[in-house]
Amino acid sequence: MKKIVEPFAKGFTLIVLLALIVIVSVSFMAAQKDKNFDEGSRCGKQMSSKANGAKSHFFGISCNNCHGVKADKADGCFSISGSVYDEARARIHKNPVIKLYTEQGAKGKLVAVLYGDANGNFYSTQKIDYSQGLYPSLYGTPGTREPEKHMTRMTFTGDCNKCHGKNVEALGID
Fold this sequence. Notes:
With 174 residues, the chain is α+β, with helices and mostly antiparallel strands. The chain is built from two helices and six strands.
């Protein structure tokens, strides 16, 4: 009887051990897959700008320098962020509205709406899928020469000040 039970016990132990390894591995991979947005991590902190808010800072500088997934300098990993000047590019544009669409010219599916703050900055940790590219539209002040501006090229990133910042300007907005 011992000869029959002993191999069975060893085989059963091996199966249980392998199953445990698989479960731990799958759990670890699932946790790593979205680790930048897990609750409790600095990236899991939910943040977004609000109209008339005043929590933002460093107008025109790339927010992702500190708030990016690869930057460890501040809470919140922004999926989109930037700063908006007025039409003359002379002053900040308070409380801008930015909308992301799947098609150029504010057409297609509306993916996200962002409300900038009183400091002219907008940001959000909201998950946004840029894999197919998105077209941002900026909604300005009614009565100005161009109350709406639409990017003519799609973007695959939400780091808006990387191209439209304080020291760089690759407009691409009509």
